[in-house]
Design a protein that fits this description.
With 299 residues, the chain is α+β, with helices and mostly antiparallel strands. The chain is built from nine helices and 14 strands.
């Protein structure tokens, strides 16, 4: 196995900290740091921690809007500090916003949001997320000499989201540790005294290799329709049975995929904070260990 593949193999389990990679691979840390930097710069490695937030009591829902007059910067703030992931289309006026929600408040959120969108005459639908699948590619499927995927084999991490769960008590240090790990997967997170509080929800890391400037979200009527390829990172199942799959790929991959999307609703974003944004866990929720319904405002 190529040394780059070995590093990715351990990185998808432990992160990119050079000290732990050095221990796992029994190689000098200076060599590990050099190879890690090369994988990041030459092969465009991105690493994202898998956090099962539902085990903290943070369920998720999604807003999907088309023909929207709402500016993306304002759309990101729709649900206040409870935003999780935003994707805005680069061609059409449409966006999706995944947000954290308490099951007991979901119908209230939904009614308030629908009322706002109705007044604006913006067609949006809102759904509770019942399951999230994250897909981790087998590192042996990437040929570093050609800088491309040569096969499609995955490990699937499933997060089934219960309708009822209890809000877990976290302090600011716990939330900050998760945020710092999302920003920098090279930190020695296991050394923190807060790691014991978040250990059970950290399920490894998903990653991308190669040019992945485009982020595509495709809405399928059912899971069987999902187009499976090495660029598939996640799939979320909605309470109406639909599935939204996210792909990270280059322009050539997008052109190839576009021909298969005629019967599906799609949001095409680029790796730019204006169009694709991820938010940290809302410490505001844990601060008083209770949910506070945010005021919904659209400018």
């Amino acid at each position: 196995m190529q040394i780059e593949s070995e590093i990715v193999k351990f990185a998808r389990t432990f992160g990119l900290n050079p000290h732990i990679l050095s221990l796992k691979l029994n190689l000098p840390i200076n060599r590990i740091m050099k190879i890690v930097n090369e994988i990041i710069l030459k092969y465009n490695l991105f690493l994202f921690p898998i956090i099962h937030s539902s085990e903290f009591g943070l369920n998720k829902a999604i807003i999907w809007c088309e023909k929207s007059l709402v500016k993306y910067e304002n759309a990101k703030k729709l649900i206040g500090p409870l935003g999780n992931i935003f994707r805005g289309d680069i061609e059409d006026r449409k966006f999706m916003l995944i947000f954290y929600v308490n099951t007991d408040y979901f119908e209230i959120y939904k009614t308030k949001l629908q009322d706002v969108f109705s007044k604006l005459n913006v067609p949006c639908d809102i759904h509770f997320i019942t399951e999230i699948d994250r897909f981790i590619n087998k590192e042996t499927c990437y040929d570093f000499s050609q800088n491309k995927w040569i096969c499609n084999e995955k490990i699937v991490k499933k997060e089934k989201i219960p309708r009822k769960n209890t809000l877990f008590s976290l302090d600011k240090g716990d939330v900050d540790l998760i945020t710092n790990l999302q920003i920098n997967p090279q930190i020695p997170y296991w050394k923190s005294i807060h790691y014991r509080h978040i250990k059970r929800v950290l399920k490894g890391f998903v990653y991308t290799l190669g040019n992945t400037n485009y982020i595509i979200n495709i809405r399928y009527n059912e899971p069987a329709q999902i187009i499976d390829n090495p660029y598939l990172l996640s799939a979320i199942r909605l309470d109406n049975g639909e599935v939204i799959a996210e792909y990270h790929m280059d322009l050539n991959g997008l052109k190839e995929l576009k021909g298969k999307l005629k019967n599906h609703r799609v949001i095409i974003s680029v790796r730019d904070l204006h169009f694709a944004h991820g938010f940290s866990l809302p410490y505001e929720v844990f601060k008083d260990n209770k949910w506070v319904l945010p005021k919904i405002e659209i400018e």
